[in-house]
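INFO  loader      accepted 1 record
INFO  loader      residues=251
INFO  predictor   begin
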Amino acid sequence: MRVVAIANQKGGVGKTTTAVNLAAALAALGKRVLVVDLDPQGNATTGLGGEKGRWPNVYHLLLEEADLTAVAQSWGALSLVAASADLAALELELAGKEGREFRLRRTLQHTQDWDYVFIDCPPSLGLLTLNALVAADRVLIPMQCEYFALEGLTQLLDTLRRVRAQLHPGLEVDGLLRTMFDARNRLTTEVNRELEQHFPERLYRVIVPRNVRLAEAPSFGRAAIDYDPQCAGAEAYRLLAQEFLQREQRP
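INFO  predictor   done
INFO  writer      dumping tokens
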């Protein structure tokens, strides 16, 4: 089972869109996929048609009051651990608890029911994201091609180095995914060149375009590949799923 954290402390960069649509695309290819929604806003839960605040949920999982099989909702090959607004208070509740950074990792170590687990992280570098990074084998970083995204990437990579040094030596960067891409924007193309120059091995070849159907799909509780299979966003995530699997086959 491969565990992938989808993380970026900057909000609005396509983390949840990527978690939902990459998971759905892999499930369509026959992979058993679990999405863990660690964001108190619960957008991945809504985007997959899950029940936000369903009891028990990921909050109870992290408090170790429920196990994964009791918490997961499933639709065929695709499963979800729903978020809860209570997650916002979890950092205070676990303050002083020994090993609080390892709670999600301990939970996931007890199952092999899925081929892939995607953890949708909140837009911060707090305890929830730290739990995701410690539990993950790899980190997928969605980002927009804009100036502040480059600054945020530097900060995130520094955080990953610290996590590797202190908590999880095996953590790797899966790749950087360019999202909401608009080639008509001059700044977008300039930042894209910077990324290609400095991170050629880490960049996914697939680029997710800015696409209104991707933005509409969550309001219907569906991934874009189900909501509008022919739209440019859905096609991008199908191609991303294929490239993701190709990377998995690398030695």
